[in-house]
User: Fold this.
Amino acid sequence: MAALDRHARARGSAQEEAPGLPPPGDAPLPGDDLPELVRRYCRGIVAAARYVTIDESGLERAAERWAQEGLASDPPALDSDDHFLDGGRSEVCAYLLTLDAINFGSGWFPTLRKRPGRSGYRTIASALADHFRAHGPWSNAELRAISAETVAHVLGQDPEHPLMALFARALRDLGAFLGEREPLAVVASADGSAKRLAATLARAMPFFDDRGFWKRAQITANDLALASVATFGDLDDLTIFADNLVPHVLRVDGVLRYDPALAARIDRGEPIPANSPPEREIRAAAVCACERLAALVGRPPREIDVWLWNRGQDRRYKARPRHRTRTVFY
Assistant:
């Protein structure tokens, strides 16, 4: 009970400081079979949805077209130009845990200083990679004391940008979670289970406790596996990593249909509030659609996610607004 009380207090404190945290009880607690909780939760949302629907015929057409374009054959990978993958296993593990601790903020990305030719995420990932190459990882003690000013300097951003304080908070949480452990000890503690690692992250750090979706907790396990830092026997049990880009690709390619008023709001660039019914329906529909896609093309949802996310970097997807939500979860 004491551990649960501490988790509730941490969530309460984070709720005051960071947007996007759902109230306790809004969705299930992060259990050991976390991906199955996501599937059940998303099916429930889709069954009662008012703003977003899955076009089954559009999904089947897209699956056939995408399979011809490499969806069922191209293996997922992390881009070595944007990520620090050339160090030792311990350093790469530290990099990915650090990066995934701050892998959020897409609702603010239009206001970031972008590196030439790079998106908001790739700007952050590559700037952090450059820091690791030049200086190595922060120690756990340095993470616990890190400031918004330090984060901004490393990422090439304005220290007053609201994301910098949120990133600093997330990194302090990571330092507290690590304690005196090496990053690889976190991987070892999962005992070969991506689901166990994801549940551990979601329980330990409020910014990972994305109730009902747990996008960032799951993607951390996937990133560690893609970088050959970890081997998980249940990796393919993960769902997609529900954000705002994968559903955007699904919408542009005719798989998701939005209520006309919601579509107009998104197309105008109007923010969609975190945890509002439309925002949760968009993410839940993406999860359920990609479960169906996975069955149609014979690939696990996590691979569907990586392929669609990379597809979303194409100019034609960037030419059309995606939904923007200011949240610490994506």
Observations:
- The longest strand covers residues 52-54.
- Residues 1-16 have pLDDT under 50 and may be disordered.
- The longest helix spans residues 277-297.
